[in-house]
Amino acid sequence: MSEGDSEAKSEDRQSVDWDARFRADDAPWERGELHPAFTLWLDAGLIAAGKSVYVPGCGRSLEPLAFASLGLTVSAVDYASSAIVWQWQQFKAAGLTGTLVTGDALAFRPDRPVDLYYEQTFLCAIHPSKREEYEAAAYAQIAPGGHLLALFMQKQERGGPPYGCDMADMRALFSGERWAWPDAEPQAFPHPSLGGKAELAVALRRKP
């Protein structure tokens, strides 16, 4: 178990005080349960023991512990130190280990590229001006042939966070030169505490 500050320091990307939001339990993006897409990808065989997974902007989500419970090697990063302390407490109580880091999720680099990158409410939380940096970081963090398990937030209103992840924009951002898109249409999962806004589940394969 490791808990600490990311060595890579950068200017704050957000105007939101995420740590204060967590401390005040003002976190409506939290589902309080595993995202149903987790089961979708587990049943599809993408989530499996022995794989490594990175969870950027993990917050107090249940997925990092669920991954570890299934035998995956977990790395998780968040700006909010209180969220990482919470994650550490869950792992400790379960007798499990993981790399849990307070810091910049885009600057973080695991010891080696991971098999899975679990994207839930991170991309929609950062300003759209940082999306090219996000894509470049994900491409560097994921091993060739690995998957970005993405949940793209659909939102008509302007501004954010959360910022809408229009699918035309996502296809341009994660271009076919570097990412293989599935043929099937993405499955929609309405968010119960964000006005039913749909999150579209897409498993992108990182090309060599």
TrEMBL record:
Q: Transmembrane region positions?
A: none
Q: Name one GO biological process term.
A: methylation
Q: Does the keyword S-adenosyl-L-methionine apply?
A: yes
Q: Origin, by domain of life? A: Bacteria
Where would one find coiled-coil regions in this protein? none
Q: Which organism is it from?
A: Aquisalinus flavus
| Protein name in UniProt | SAM-dependent methyltransferase
The protein's matches in InterPro entries, at most eight in alphabetical order, are given as:
SAM-dependent_MTases_sf, TPMT
> Carries keyword RNA-binding?
no
Q: Write out the GO MF terms.
A: S-adenosylmethionine-dependent methyltransferase activity
Name the keywords, alphabetized.
Answer: Methyltransferase, Phosphoprotein, S-adenosyl-L-methionine, Transferase
